[in-house]
């Protein structure tokens, strides 16, 4: 049996839940939210659809003890409106203050439940809050990781594929670093239809910086139009979980702990039944290595600063 | 190629779009919304996920001319907030005023596009507005129908299956009539695991009226908790469309035109490539026939009254 | 994790394996066959396809110790050619002699493995050999059941739906009894689009006996044309397993133990995590009850006779 | 509507048909085989399963006129037993004699049908017979292509992923050339988890020639154990077809016409609604270019020789 749980059913958590149910991925799903009416509403809406799909998923709500034998735990809590207010003030790390409070509430409950599966986080600021979660739940660094730049990479693939009029799946390579401002596309890793994008860009006079900017702007356009983003992030989260359940040892980028930099940060890894099976070190250019270090340091420093301030 | 279009990407339209993309059902999808930023946001969010799924769906926005060769058109426009305000005043048909305006805007555009596929409506008041759409688009009564009590029936199945601790799919039978207050469960059509629910209720001392009320309350609980409902209604809409595309001649209940009562109303039908292939007349009890007539008359009368008032 | 095993990868076992892999249903799959080259060939063919599908399934072969934590065990062994020879001599129970030998080989190994999941059998003669398996493995009657007339019912649905030009899924009701000659369609349970087929047949002057015969002939036509049948039987087997994994408590017909008749026989049941959660007793007509008793008695008597003869 | 047709329902054609039906990919499927009983048997087996799956596919048989509005035509005819006999005599191109006769039979019928979709071939010798088909049907070189080394590449991915204990999907890169003896793995294109396999091989002292041989031996092991291969080849064929239907412009390797070498040969291409949208030229090493030319020349020469001999 595949048993999933989700803490926090805002737009992202709800889209994850729907994906797990409509595609018959989860056999059992536990939804936890401090807003009990919301948890109940999602439970009912997902149950109401089950007369119309091929599979069945048993759906439970608001019971931490169910985590004891849960395979995959998504942590998708957040307060998008708190975020909006802060963001207006130009503070990208604004959610940390809020999500730290969430972690302080949920981490002891996760710990007490006896949860020993794999946890996948989508909260923001993604890298820092996942580290905070790891520290507070006592889960191993292998067991807990975040979507991180798996989403940013998907957006880069989309933007590059538009440029070359092809399937986003034809675009390989990664966006490294923070799921935030200091991230960067490691263009040396990017291929389009098997061809190095750096070569293609030269031939066509393309400005890769502009493509990088377009990917970032795309995420922003979604946010401005809908006031949240959910489909792509939910799809990324579910995909990571499937690699865990089938012990696929699949190569994806995500936010996981870097021994080298002493922080969670977006980097390629192999995902299997224990979560992060290994981190993959690709031969980046010197410039990319510098950017990577900078991004990791940014996460680490801000984390330390804000951790102190808010305790 | 399976070509879909959606007019209106509020919560329902967006959930329909996501379902079509994540399950690889649509080869091409056209999203139309008067809120251009919203249409663009949904397009981008759905495109961003395509590097992470097996299939590809080409997604276009805001171009009515694309309807010329569209197979399935979902009309999922609405203004849930206008609805909320009216509803506070105790007016169940409150959305009609608003959705009629939408129809006046979109019907000529649909007509002009040369659309000749099948249209599935989820707007409210479901039965009346679908009739209004049919009249204003000039589409045949076969070609355009609505989810209607297909959703209410799913909710009844859920509530009954809870009572008997079984899969909702084990519950057959239908909720007839208006997708609204005057609807009723035709208990004589309902079986649980192949057994007549009326017999089972007698044996167990169950009150079927209470079950009917529970189903209605369930829909309300979703609405109260989330401020909208989307997963179950989107699942119903997509399921109906799949029956059209594969010419399945599947037996579902939906809101379609009744020659007998001269109105769109929730009744069992056979769905195939032309839309409504035939209406099915089940042997209801006298009491059920009376309720059905009452519900159909309610729709018809209100439609005529409101049609006059608002023109 | 969903862990499946299959004993016997002839055409049915291989089709079950492919279904589990191509639809991403199994996370892990253990294939066991006395023909080691065949087991290896299926393993390789299924592994070769994994670069081309979205999900991953880990595939192992020929290790009974893997059954210790297997959730679902399919037993799909058989010798279609032995069967053909015997069948030419007019002996429908011909496979029993052969499949009993298989059970004598595999039952102790299943027992020794510590298997404690749910076993689903497709061997022939289906009802008798499942009982023999149950007795020899020591699995509970709840834990082991067979596809039985779930397949014959699907064929009846197909034939009836052809007659009424509709989706086979619109046809409810069951073929009861032996997965063999003495089976019968309980027409009193059959509805088409919600209408009693007995009524419809009267109106249209349809001969239901002819439809029953057509369903049987259909199975035969498959056999004659392909020399085996696999797609429909594999689909039935997988569907039953999914109800177990998600604890769906779904109402299906299958061959399970009848307390009343003291034998495995095709009858409606509710399928959940323990296998057979309960047997459903539908109100059959007197004639149907007689046929059901006859069919159950046939299985029981032949089983006893052949059990003695071949020991 | 997605309309598919299959000419030839041996093991490969049948597996393609089952995949299209069980995954709900095809709305309509036409099966054509000179063995009418076999075509009928497959039709029935696939119809019998439709009461047990979520979607419906209308299945027709043996009517070439249905090709007029078919989107995708698979040509999967062959005579595996004729092949076996010849192969015993050490003649790899043995099937050509046989499949040419098939093409002479079916090509005029395809032409007469007015078929204007995309045709995907799996017959052997794959590259030569596809060219022969193209010439005889009058379909454009864009419209008709073959699975070719898409399968061999999948096998290479499997073998390499075994070596590195990872998901086959983590292995990128291609096997070029003939779907036969003269093929080769272009190791310069192969990456594992984003790392160049040539580098990894050096570090680990791996012999890439042995991996190449293992992939070839794997295909052979499947053949020896099952007497045919079907799951992986069917999966490859269906995947190619999905890229056509959704105009995915996906980068896959397949056998398509090379202007440079004047023959069909396995090379990377972009697949979209017209079939082959463009051929991709990757920067191979000199050694790989030589092997590629050799493989293309081999196909061309044998084709010309055998074409003369057998006319």
Give a written overview of the molecule:
The structure is a homotetramer of 311-residue chains. Chain A has 311 residues and is α/β, with parallel strands linked by helices. Chain A folds into two domains: 3-146, NAD(P)-binding Rossmann-like Domain (Rossmann fold); 150-309, Lactate dehydrogenase/glycoside hydrolase, family 4, C-terminal (L-2-Hydroxyisocaproate Dehydrogenase, Chain A, domain 2), CATH 3.90.110.10. The first copy, chain A, has ten helices and 14 strands. Chain A has helices at residues 11-22, 36-48, 80-88, 94-113, 126-137, 149-163, 197-204, 208-226, 231-245, 286-310, and strands at 3-7, 28-32, 58-61, 72-75, 118-121, 144-146, 171-172, 175-176, 184-185, 191-192, 195-196, 250-258, 263-272, 275-279. In chain A, the strands form four sheets. The first copy, chain A, has a six-stranded parallel sheet with strand order 3-2-1-4-5-6, sandwiched between helices. In chain A, helix 1 packs across helix 9, helix 4 runs parallel beside helix 5 and helix 6 (149-163) crosses helix 8. The longest helix of chain A is centred in the C-terminal third of the chain and has 25 residues, at 286-310. The mean pLDDT of chain A is 93. Chains in contact: A-B, A-C, A-D, B-C, B-D, C-D. Chains A and B meet through helix 1, helix 2, helix 6, helix 8 and helix 9 of A and helix 1, helix 2, helix 6, helix 8 and helix 9 of B. Chains A, B, C, D: Residues 3-145 form the Lactate/malate dehydrogenase N-terminal domain. Chains A, B, C, D: Pfam families: Ldh_1_C, Ldh_1_N.
């Amino acid at each position: 049996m595949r048993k999933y749980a989700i803490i926090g059913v805002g737009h992202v958590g709800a889209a994850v839940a729907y994906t797990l149910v409509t595609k018959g991925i989860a056999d059992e799903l536990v939804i936890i939210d401090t807003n009990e009416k919301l948890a109940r509403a999602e439970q009912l809406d997902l149950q109401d659809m089950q007369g119309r799909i091929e599979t069945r998923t048993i759906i439970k709500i608001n019971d931490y003890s169910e985590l004891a034998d849960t395979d995959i735990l998504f942590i998708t809590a957040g307060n998008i409106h708190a975020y909006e207010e802060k963001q207006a003030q130009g503070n990208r790390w604004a959610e940390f203050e809020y999500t730290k409070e969430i972690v302080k509430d949920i981490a002891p409950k996760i710990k007490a439940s006896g949860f020993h599966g794999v946890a996948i986080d989508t909260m923001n600021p993604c890298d820092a809050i996942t580290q905070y979660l790891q520290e507070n739940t006592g889960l191993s660094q292998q067991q807990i990781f975040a979507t991180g730049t798996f989403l940013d990479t998907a957006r880069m693939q989309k933007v590059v594929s538009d440029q070359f009029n092809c399937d986003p799946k034809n675009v390989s390579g990664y966006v490294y670093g923070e799921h935030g401002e200091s991230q960067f596309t490691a263009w040396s890793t990017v291929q389009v239809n098997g061809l190095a994008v750096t070569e293609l860009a030269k031939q066509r006079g393309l400005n890769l910086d502009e493509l990088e900017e377009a990917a970032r702007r795309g995420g922003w356009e979604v946010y401005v139009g809908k006031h949240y983003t959910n489909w792509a992030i939910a799809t990324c989260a579910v995909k990571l979980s499937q690699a865990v359940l089938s012990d696929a040892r699949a190569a994806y980028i995500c936010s996981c702990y870097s021994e080298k930099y002493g922080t969670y940060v977006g980097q390629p890894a192999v995902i299997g039944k224990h979560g992060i099976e290994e981190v993959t070190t690709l031969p980046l250019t010197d410039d990319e290595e510098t950017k990577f270090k900078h991004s990791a340091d940014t996460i680490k420093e801000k984390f330390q600063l804000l951790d102190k301030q808010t305790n």
